[in-house]
Write a structure and sequence with these properties.
Strand content: 5-15%
CATH class of the largest domain: Alpha Beta
CATH architecture of the largest domain: 3-Layer(aba) Sandwich
Radius of gyration: 32 Å
Helix content: 40-55%
Distance between the termini: 65 Å
Number of domains: 4
CATH superfamily of the largest domain: P-loop containing nucleotide triphosphate hydrolases
CATH topology of the largest domain: Rossmann fold
């Protein structure tokens, strides 16, 4: 606001000193010009009863706080509006009443997440302790950081993993049905399968483009079986010292055998079970041999242990893994079809603030070739747009249909390169028929 406009408003205020709206407008303009003392002089002895509007009371409270009168600022911050609650938290922090301030801060953030202020939260999490010095005139103040919140620490160290079932996996109905028949039922009715001399356990290799749900399917399978889930990372096995990788592989299998029913999941299995003809003289071939031995070697009892693996490059996995008794079930996890894409979008939108009708069908129709991860990226990008508007306006803006469609226009599918490579293998290196499912998908989707 320029000088002449502000001067005119002050003249008008002099003529109508009881005009609360005009007073708040002038004080707000003076705060923007760092004239807090002048604004406080205009406020005079007026109390909260002078301001009927919450926004006007907020300006009066800001004037008091900016002038160092935190106690008086609290008298104006008595309503439960998010902005006044946050200002109340600031005033209480100024007064070192941190416990009350944390309560006000938490209420304000719940009401309006856009008001979050990490520096204020950190200040409210500290405690001030006063120690007397040699005489009463000298006091030592020590600021101690409050204890780390337990939930935050757990989130940083061990991310919480909830039980996942097939209800959390959008689409892939045919694969789910195969897994139910071949895996879940044997776990649920072991006596029946033992009677027919069918073992409970075995191995399944899931392959397909990145981001299409292979890992999620493995976790959901463990959830449906009510089994212990062991997610084996590459770093859990590989070791720089000779013989250690094989020893770790054995220990991991022994742990699973000791706690049946158990599901072991190896992601990116080509890193642990790559083709040995390319590494005959290296330590990698010894690790592959150990892996094969653990799966069905002499005197190994894997009853009740299911071994799941996933790869984006099945043509790089050693052929010895593919024989019956090891990974004897080879399941293609394709990009989701249109109904599955709609389901996945709905699952990712669930629990997020939305407004108005979301045209899920349009987005699902227009996202052919998108993986499940791509669809999640659409929703995340739409949420980013809503958050940007929230920060720009200061008011919470929910996700709207326009945000979703704008995100769709920005992003491209990531499965096309994989499908092109897989098509070549399916056409020219499919002697055993293991890529027939890929050819069927390409024919159905018109990408052959």
């Amino acid at each position: 606001m320029d000088d002449s406009t502000l001067a005119g408003l002050k003249t008008a205020l002099t003529a109508t000193p009881d005009n609360a709206k005009l007073l708040a407008l002038v004080m707000g303009a003076m705060l923007e010009r760092d004239e807090g003392a002048g604004a406080l002089a205009l406020l005079g002895n007026r109390g909260p009863e002078h301001f009927a509007d919450t926004a006007d009371a907020l300006i009066a409270a800001r004037v008091c706080l900016a002038s160092g009168e935190a106690e008086r600022a609290l008298t104006f911050a008595r309503t439960d509006s998010a902005e006044l609650l946050m200002l109340r938290a600031r005033a209480l922090a100024h007064l070192n009443r941190n416990e009350e301030g944390r309560a006000a801060y938490d209420q304000a953030v719940v009401a309006n997440p856009a008001l979050e202020d990490p520096s204020l939260r950190s200040r409210l999490a500290s405690r001030v302790r006063t120690f007397p010095g040699g005489d009463d005139r000298h006091m030592l103040k020590v600021i101690e950081r409050g204890p780390t919140d337990g939930s935050d620490l757990n989130q940083l160290l061990t991310p919480e993993t909830e039980k996942v079932t097939f209800a959390d996996v959008g689409g892939l109905d045919e694969i789910k049905e195969q897994i139910r028949k071949r895996i879940i039922l044997p776990f649920q009715k072991p006596k029946l399968y033992q009677k027919f001399k069918k073992r409970v356990g075995g191995g399944i290799l899931l392959y397909g483009p990145p981001g299409c749900g292979k890992t999620l399917l493995a976790r959901a399978t463990a959830g449906e079986c009510h089994a212990q889930f062991y997610n084996v990372a590459i770093s859990d096995v590989l070791d720089m010292y000779v013989g250690e990788s094989e020893a770790k592989m054995h220990a991991i299998f022994e742990k699973a055998r000791a706690t049946p029913p158990a599901v072991m999941f190896f992601d990116e299995i080509e890193a642990l079970g790559g083709k040995r003809q390319y590494s005959r003289e290296s330590l990698t071939s010894k690790l592959v041999s150990q892996f094969l031995s653990e799966m069905d070697g002499f005197a190994r009892n894997n009853q009740g242990v299911l071994i799941l693996a996933a790869t984006n490059v099945p043509w790089s996995v050693d052929a010895a893994f593919m024989r019956p008794g090891r990974f004897d079930r080879f399941l293609f996890v394709p990009p989701p079809d249109r109904p599955a894409r709609a389901t996945i979008l709905s699952l990712h939108l669930a629990g997020r603030p939305t407004e108005g009708r979301m045209d899920i069908d349009y987005v699902a129709k227009s996202s052919s070739g998108f993986s499940g991860a791509d669809l999640r990226h659409i929703v995340e990008t739409a949420a980013d747009h809503a958050i940007e508007e929230t920060l720009a306006t200061g008011q919470e803006v929910p996700i709207r249909d326009a945000h979703l469609k704008a995100a769709l226009r920005e992003l491209k599918p990531t499965t096309l390169e994989w499908l092109t490579t897989a098509r070549n293998y399916a056409r020219y290196a499919n002697e055993s028929g293991q890529y027939d499912a890929v050819l069927a998908f390409l024919d159905k989707s018109g990408r052959s």
